[in-house]
Protein: HOOK N-terminal domain-containing protein
Amino acid sequence: MGEKVLHEVSAHELNKILLLLLGCAVQSEQKEHFINRIRCMRTELQAAIVGEIQKITEDSGHLLEIQSLEILPDDHRFLTVLDYLERIMKERDDYANGILEMAQNRTTTDLDEYENVSNGTTTSSSSTNGDCPTTTVLNGNGKMYKEVQYVTRSPSPSTQERHGGIENAELKQQLRRLKYDLEHKEECINICQEELQSRDEEIAKLKGERQKLISDAYAAKDLTEENEHLQEQILGLRKLEVENEQLKSKISQLSYYKNMSSQFEHDNKILQESLQMAEDQLQETKKRLEVVSEIEHKLHDSQLALKAANDEISKERDRIDELLIENGKLRREVKDHSYKRLDLERHLEAIEEFSTPNESFNDSLQSQLDVHNRSAILELKLENQKLQKQLEDSSKPGEMFELKEELAAAERKAEEKLSEIKKLVIELENAQDAKNRAETRLSSIRIEHESLTQTLNETRRQLSAVQSDLTIRKEDEILQKRVRELEQTVTSKDESVLTLEEEKKRIETQLEKTKQKQKESRHELDTLKDEYANLETALAATERSKKTLEAERNSLKARVESLEDKCDQLNVKLVNYENLERRYANSENLLIEKSNKIADLEAENRTTKQQSELEMKKAQRLREDLVSEKCRIGDLLSRLRTVCNSIRSNGGKLSNAEELMNDDEKLIDIIDDVIMQALNAARREADALRLQQQLQIAELDDLKKDIESLRRAEGELNESDDKVKELVMENKNIKEQVTLLQERLRKLQVEDSAKASELQAIKRDMEEIHNKNTNNSRHSPEIAKLQVQLRNAQLQEELHREDNVNLRKQIETAIKVKTEYEKKLNSLQATQDALIADYNRLENLHHLLGADYDRTKVELMQLKQRIKVERMNGSEISTREKMNIEATLRSEREESQKILHEAEIEISRLQKELSDFRRENCAMLRNTDERSDELRRLRVAECSQKSTINSLNGTIQQLNHVLSGKEMEIATLRRQVDMLRQYNGDENQSLIKQIELLLVKNQELHERSLNDKDTFHALQRDLQEQLVTLRRNKEKLEEKIMDQYKSMDSRKIKEKQTLMKRAAKALMPKVS
Structure:
């Protein structure tokens, strides 16, 4: 502007600057700064500026007064203000752009000149070329344009301009520093954002771990619930075994139901009395309403009391609602406690049942022992008969030896089982210690579960906070949309500012319309007064309903007191239920201990079975060895018998051979004949022995069959299939041994050379067997006791097996339930994963929305600052222009506003009263509906209770009939039990006598067997001596025969005769 030569352009730009300065001087926070700048100007400019300020203050056309806008309606005011603001904004923007361009050009030229002066040099172009290109901005009627002209060089800058240039340079340095600080802060913000992301990831991991822990806690809960469910099923199964005791418990329950029915009847009577009281109160309220109709002129005083009463009624309603909610909760709790009580009673009954069957079990054990004694006596009789037969048939004690060895093995097994029982007792103690440790672990797991629930609540709170943040962000977006709409409206209403002058003319017409509206409002006030009178009548009706409500409130108070009494009774019952729950917990612990003992016993049974199998294998091997030894003994005995028969048979023939002593050839023939006859007799005796052995084997088979039949009978009583299998294997082994014996008999004819060594071994074996027989005869009573103990143990094993079968069935059902719960858990885990994914998405959206929210905040702050500046600039100018217009209309408008304000106050007051009355009426209607519903429910409950009482009476009668029948059956069963006990006692006495006789016979048989053994040993010694002599003679004869056969070829017949004579002479005295 200063470089422009044209007068019009420079004057126009000066006017713009002056207007801007005036605006800043009039409305700005830095008035003093602009005033100081005006004082620094020339006096002519200062005088022109003062004249302009006087024009603005004196002429109202340049100003727009806010008070003048109050005459217009709301829409017109808003449009006029927006038009003024839009026009001012446009002018402000044009002025600011022009000033900025000029200031930039001026600062560039000043800096160049300052640098040239400071360096002491001048450009050659400026000295030679006096003209320089310049650009100017012209604003004609609000339009911008540029021109390039060559103007003469401006003079050197002044000191003020130089100072301004220096200040600009310093400001640029400050801007650079600020930019550097901003970059540094942005880097810090990025670092913080990265840290936040890492922390968010850590939080997500922790949340995942927490969810896993929560899922584990839920799984542990499910397992505990499954265990409880299984325990309840076990108790239910045990209840089915004892029905008589359940019927007794039902009788006690029926007595409880009778008491409850009497209580319900008492409650019904109380409700009927309360209804009668309510009807009496209704009649009294009707009478009072007739009296209240005479006191309508006291409404003003009663309205204040009504408000207080309404507040009290609302409070009382809230209290009543709370009491009703508490009543519902208490009823639910009563139902829950009743169910729990029933469960606890069932558990207690099951525990009593579990304790009672022990007595019956003991009775059954006595009966089983009696039966066992009978079977044992019968078995002893059979064994005695068989022993007698064996003693009569044969003199061999081999089978007795086998039986005694089996008894010794049984004693060993019993001792081993006793040692195992001690070990099992120690293992039970260890299991109890482990159980205590598991209980401590359970307590720690419960504490962790509580901590996890707390963390869950905290996460829910955090989620609610996140949701609130999301709602806030949505509201910010809505605000942004509204701001954009306002900006659009601002641009649209800039155009409406031009139409304000036309609207001023319309204001006068609108004032006339307002007067007409005032008249209409007066008519409306009259109608409102009529409505007010109607409302007063409604208030009277509400007072009447209020009194009825007070009566109902009193009745409700009485009910509340009765309910409190019931609550006290329920608290007492709750204490009893808690005691029952403790007992139930103790019973559950006992059940767990017993289940652990059963598991331990199962393991013990398995180990005992394995050990019994090993012992049976050992017994089989020992039996095989015994059979082989018996075979050897039989062979030796048969050989001895053949030798004795041969001696007896040959003795007579040798005595007749004395006549033939001279003839050697005849003697040789006779000896050959004797030897051949002895051999033939031995063969015949061997065949006879074979037949005898076959007969003995047949007898042994019969005995074994009898033993197998007895063992099978024992197996049926004991249900032991393993022993039957072992007996079958023994039969197979015995048959194989019989075949082996037959093969050995065939080989005996060849094994004559080994008889001496075998006889010596037989002597030793016989002595050992004799010692064993003496030892076994001593241990016979102990073996009987061990057999009784074994059978008792077998009975216990059967009971344990039945329990194991039941437990296996329960375990299978538990496994099925567990699979179902696992499926449910998998579905829940899938839903949790989906929720976690949604949560992560929401967090990402949260971060994005937070960034958008920060940006919108910054933009809103900027917009607010701009709007404030624009308002400050345009409001004072518009108010001053319109002060004169509003001065004339102010008085009339104030009067009309006062009238309208009073009317509005009255209307608002009446509307409030109407809304209050409507609310009260609605509340009254609701209360009446609720009361009617309650009455209906009570009547329905009475009918249902009566029906249940009738049904319960019928069931009581039926149960009484059933009980009488059951008691008769019990009496008959008791009589039968007494008879059976007497019969068992008589049989026991007779059996004891028979046992004593059998024991006497056994002793006699033992004595006979010992005597027979002594005679047998004496015969054996004689036979052995004879065998020794026979062997010596046989050896000598064999040597002589061999020598004779050798000399037959070399010598002559004469020499043969002399040799035969010599042999005869040598043999004859030895045989005699």
Summary: The two ends are 185 Å apart (CA to CA). The longest strand covers residues 131-140.
